[in-house]
Amino acid sequence: MSVHEPEMDLLSHFGQLDIQNKPKKHQFPLLKLPKIVLLDCIENLDVLEIILFSLLSKRAKTIANLIRWDPLDICFGTQNIPQIQLTSSINTCSQWGIQFIKEKESSDYPIRTSHRLFLKHDGNMIENSRQMTMHICEVFRSPILGIEIHGKSQIEWILKFQPKLRKVWTSNDAITSVETLNRILEILKETEYLDLGSIGTYEEFQITEPIPPRAISIENSHWVTLSSILNGTNSVVRLFDSKFTSKDINIILKEWQMGSKLRNLEYLLIHTITRLDADEVYKDLNLTVGDENDGRPMTVVVLLECIENLDVFEIILFSLLSKRAKTIAKLNRWNSLTSIILCADSPPVIHLRCSMNPGSSWMIYFKKKKELPRYPYFEIGPKNNHCLYLKGNGNLIKDFKKMVEHIYEVFPSPIGCIQIAEKSLIDWIIKFQPTIQDIRIKKDVITSVEKLDCIFKNLKVTDYLQLESVAINKNFQYTEPIPFRCIEIKDSSWLTLPSILNGNNSIIRLYGSKWTSKDINTLLKEWQMGSKLQNLEFMEIDITKVVDAINFFDESIEDLNVTNGDDNDGRPTTVKIHHESIFTIPWVNRVRNLTRSDGMIGTLFARFEIYGNEQLMHIHIYFQVWKKQV
Amino acid sequence: MSSTEQGTSSAAPAEPTTAPESAAAPEVPESFYYVHGKDKVVHKVSAGALQHSALIHGMISNLGYTEEQAKANPFPFENIDGDILQMVVDWCNQHKGKPTPPEDTNLPKQKEKLFDLVLAVNYLEIKELLTYCCKQVAMMVKGKSPEEIREIWMIPTDAEDEAAEKEAKKRAGKEAAGETAAAAGDAK
After folding, report:
1. pLDDT digit string (tens) for A414-449?
2. Where do the record's region annotations for Disordered lie (chain B) (predicted)?
């Protein structure tokens, strides 16, 4: 894994500590543990400990990155002293802070209390904090939730690193030019909340364009004009030191009452520097007198607290009621869906999981009209599966995509897994979420080499790809590496040896392969030399129509220095195929071991099956990479 | 989405069947099995205690040994030190048929023993004990500085990792060159 240059600086600054010569008393060789056990150990650390661990080395960072940790809300503030605020998205009471402070204040950095970490900076606090923020985002696979903008360089940095943000705020006089202000407004397309301190531009400056975020709070807002507010779609507007006149406010109220403008408005606060005339403010408005007992909500937040008590399906149904309901539902802090799993089969199913309630799942099914007595139809199935049946409008896949996009917007949770049985979904997922943990593509969905290439080049699969047979010309061959950790390919006759040899896969499972014994032999030799397939953990190749399986196996190990293995040599009995599958290695009488120079052992064995009546055989070749632990 | 295991693999355990409440199970005498580690010291352990180990449980479930047969055929775990196997056996005995508590205070405090214990427990597939051990490993670095974490967990620096990688490549290259030369010699 490559670490960027600036990050290397951070690592070296943080302390690539030279301790190798210290006495080895009371030590525990953590990295020698099997990977699954190692991760189980690390998962017991708290957020700050994981961060400290991930900074120890590139290898430690790679390990920390594999942890199944709940997403974090990351906020990056720079007022007076830069600090990073981390909040568990599951339990908002769990918060941690990271702060860079001046070098000379203490020599014992990092200092940590139970929930705060103080780090020494190297003279550039802002840059150190940015690098640390990027590091944390990468380790915890979480985006930045909110950021304080203090100047142009911060804008350019965040635009490059993460152009979509939920919260943006600035301190007073942090913005000193119209150009900087305009650049901030450019990055606010998807922002929910903007809190703008006073800006240091020239007095006459005015803005007439709408300010995009849902909620805006602006200090010294003399530059915000009536048309900017009237043409906007804001729900919460708070303007301080405004130059609005009584007439301006009267226009706002009239436009709202007519219903043509400010349709999303929930709350408006205008603090003016001019004296207002009540008669002019209320002129020509049809007013009645309200009292305290008319049921008016006392706060805007009360509504959100009610929403947060709803169940996953209830929030989804509520968010579908209107645009305004969706906007409110989006503000819920109930963003704890651990993953969205999509079975884009026929009929398609959306499967939601939530870390607050790990034993339950929520399934959304799309049904053709008249299949059920009414829609939406609820049901609680076995194993606490909550089912919601929705009526499709003819094109179930289209309905399915729309609903996924909607859920993704309401609960900002990533799609963890998608099973694709329809061609159009490939382009859709590449566009909608190009990084995905697990993708499974059904039989004959891929009909061209271009489409196959498009998947491998444009989609980043972080864990597992399963590909069923492709409907491409039989003579087609693929020679490029498939850049995913685990690949499982059915009817893989098109996949060539160079594709695997030049790749970096950890788990390879090929069925219906046409590889020869010479191919297997080459692969084993390359693995043993250590120059290729360095990350290989497990390989299973199923080769069909072999005339003499025993001879095939013998040819596969020709010229290799193999030894016979036994049952008690400590070889693991299982292998983790992907995030939710552990494979039990089949037991056989005899295995052959190859040893690589770094001590890794590759255990090879095969199983045979007679193939039809043609006296041909299937041969399953297994190759398991492991290290002697005891 | 379910896993895609096939053929001989058994990723998902079978659903447990529940006996009807009224059917009282007849009293069956407890069966014992024997295990030994690297030191060849044989430990007698009840089948109930061994149920904690998925590996051993899988091995014995279909054997149907008599007491004599079990005694004559102890399970050899040559990759586990005798004292570690003793710890594992003791733990299995202590927790036989009992719900496992959230914390376990009986685990070894010495780090070198804990490492061997983690490996043994992982090999023997004792899930609850492995969970305790992993917590214990994490506890080692509670409140420690990065220098201390690096030292306790023996995390090499990037420079050390790179040097080790270079060394491995160099060695592999030399060995490959040696093999090629030997093969050329044989051909002559």
Report:
1. 888 898 988 888 999 999 888 988 999 999 999 999
2. 1-25, 160-188
What is the bridge-based pairing of β-strands A507-513 and A116-120? unpaired
Mutate to test the interface with A, among B2, B5, B6, B9 (most CBs of A within 10 A): B9
Q: What is the pLDDT of residues A350-373, one digit of tens each?
A: 888 876 666 678 888 887 766 676
Is-contact A461 A484, C-beta < 8 A? yes
**Tally of CA atoms within 13 A in the half-sphere of A531 that contains its CB:** 12
**Could you tell me where the DSSP H helices lie in A232-308?**
246-258, 278-281, 301-308
- The arrangement of secondary structure in B32-140, i.e. its CATH architecture, is 2-Layer Sandwich (3.30)
Find the radius of gyration of the CA atoms of chain A.
30
The complex's ipTM works out to: 0.74
- List, in sequence order, every residue forming a beta bridge with B75; answer none if it has no partner: B35
Domain spans in chain A, listed from the N-terminal domain onward: 5-16+28-216, 217-287, 487-630
A58 DSSP β-pair partners: none
- CA distances (Å), B61 to each of A174, A546, A585, B51, in order? 72, 36, 18, 10
- Total count of residues recorded for chain A: 630
Q: Which two tokens stand for residue A507?
A: 């788990």
d(CA A367, CA A349): 10
Q: Which residue has the tokens 């590091």?
A: A135
Task: Tell me the C-alpha to C-alpha distance, in Å, between residue B39 and each of A39, A66, B76, B90, B97.
Answer: 31, 37, 10, 17, 28
Cβ contact A630–B80 (<8 Å):
yes
**A330 DSSP assignment:** H
CB contact under 8 A, A630 and B159: no
SS3 assignment, position A471 = coil
